[in-house]
Amino acid sequence: MAVVCLAQAMLAPREAEAKELVNVTGTVTDASSAPLPRAAVQVQDDRGHTVAATRTDGRGEFTLALPKGKYRLDVTLAGFDAIKGRPIEVTDSTPPLDLSMEIGRLEEQIVVTATRTEAAVSQVGNSVNIVTGEELSREGAVTMDEALRRIAGMTIVQSGGYGQITSLFVRGGESDYTKVLLDGIPVNDPGGSFNFANLSVADIDRIEIVRGAQSALYGSDAIGGTLQVFTRRGTSEKPWPMPRFAVEGGTLSTTRYAGGIEGSGDRGDYALSFTRFDTDNDVFNGSFNQETVAANMGWKITPGLELRGVFRSDYGRTGVPGPWAILPPDPDEYYRHRNLTGGVAVTYSTTPSWTQRAAYSVNGSWQFSADPRDSGSFTPRYGDRTAPWPSLDLVYQTLNDTETQRVNYESEIAVPGNHLLTAGASYERESGVIGDPLADPLRSSRDNFGAYIQDQWEFRNLLFATGGVRLEHNGSFGFYAAPRASVAWHARRPATRSALGLTNLRANFGLGIKEPTLVESFSQSPYFRGNPDLQPERARSFDAGVEQSFAAGRGTFTATYFYNLFFNQIGYAVTDYQTFEGTFLNIGKTRARGLEVTLRTILGRGWEVSGGYTYVDSVILTSSSPSDPVFAAGQHLLRRPSNSGYLDLRWRPRRWSFGATALMVGSRVDSDFAGLGILKNPGYLVVNLLADYRINKSTSVYAFVGNVLNTDYMEVFGYPALPANFRIGIRAGF
Fold first, then answer.
1. Which of 208, 619, 626, 723 sits 20 to 30 Å CA-CA off 570?
2. Contacts 24+ apart (CB under 8 A), 457-462
3. Answer CATH for 19-101 from 3.30.70.20, 3.40.50.620, 2.60.40.10, 3.40.1390.20
4. Which pTM was predicted?
């Protein structure tokens, strides 16, 4: 009898193991049906014992192998209300589970740019901001600078009105230290420069901004930050074309009109649009016009295989009046640009835990500047200052025609132990024609190779760590390795909503690199001879901060400290003072450290208030132009204010939406570069107003008043910003 009992005891576990397992699948989404990756899914039996656990993949999908029976299912993800104790019954015909998670009072968001994979913002250690297309549309934004001015740590500098050169400085870095991506396609000129005036906000779904060095993922140019623009996809519930349009007009002879179609179905989606914007900028020869054509199309060949193509063209012309605060406006100088970006990508989900992606893309940038006639010489004047020498109007023309072709492969696989491994490799060819097209312009090219690996690890849904490294071989500077590491720790995570909510501690460290421009590497001119031995400009970047939610999820406070060291900066040096010949050398070094603070809260009754403040302590450690007082060692960095911030107030009673935004920028180092001896640009305060009335679900009318106080200021000394201006419009489907 004892032997029989022992045999039964030994066989019982094997009989349990022999129970037939059923694969239960499901999808976790938010309230807008967007997939939620990396959500923790846990199944318990009727005794409360955990029998299976997993995480959703990048598409929000999961698979669990369970014996037949009745269970309870939990789903948790930081920033969302947990699904607790949902009953499920596992049978041979259990349908796929469709699980929707409600967001907290302030929305959790999904970010791609920080890790190249979909992840909740609260689960990455980077400093991240997301601007949605809905926000851009609601606020009537037409240019990229309007979209980015309310982001802590970022300084937008525009040389006058719409269409004039617009630069972005991130945390004290240079204007060519930000990697810019369009649906994953790099769009910087070779060497990192990018004019944000050339990129409109037409058909943008969202903008993701990651501050700090990201060369471990994106290679060269991601030395100060990375900004990625995702274009609109078709989301209508009907497969046939759904039209959309927008029309607006206002002061400064401003008009904008846009139209497009979109559709989506079980097998694919598409969105196509055309936008035209015109204005005269309230100055002689200051007119600007731009046309944008955008397309984004996807086709799901099989449930696990998707083909997607994107295309975008931004073409425009800008009159260039010059520094008309100190000189008469130039009557005939102009600038034309044409940016063409396109690519095709294939995404294959080999298994629920393994996704592969291959892509080919090309980005072409054609920029032509010319001043066809000599308008005479003038002596710069400002206030009671007069320059000691006249300014000449030189006849010139110059072309910057570059192209970058890129082939990329990456693989994402979830492995046991709550690890998500990502690896990839890329090849790109950069080429360009730069200089006077009628003379002997520079013609050059280089080939670049890169490979990276990254591991994202999660511990008990409380600690999220990311580490990775990229190996880069550049046609100019050769081999370089760029690592990074980040961590997010949910130090306090209450089980239910309380006055004090989630406490999220973050830290991030990385190295960044930036390649030389084609001119700096390959120019044959004796007056600015290229240096083939140039090393990449480098950065050492660190930041740490805390995010605290409060008021039962209705408010969020963040504070972040950052420290950036930029070295090996390329500068021009004269090598022969008799012939004025010169070349480029790695001679510069700067440092920028500071603090970013933001606050956002819902006050109730439709009121919402947010604000931010940025302090930047920047200094030139080793000057690349020591004879110029603006760039002397010990000086603050050019056009990067020590103090800046914003205050934003919103009120949404029923169908109405009203808003007021105050932008504050402190004094900063600047120069007239004309001999007037001006080294400081005073601070300013600008207030913008907006109103929106929703006629129905897809149609609304809106009005925008810029610089309502008619503040007289210049973001770049010599180039007055726009006075008070007004636009009113109607949109449907956007």
1. 208
2. 457/417, 457/418, 457/419, 457/420, 458/38, 458/55, 458/123, 458/418, 459/418, 461/40, 461/76, 461/78, 461/490, 462/489, 462/490, 462/493
3. 2.60.40.10
4. 0.89
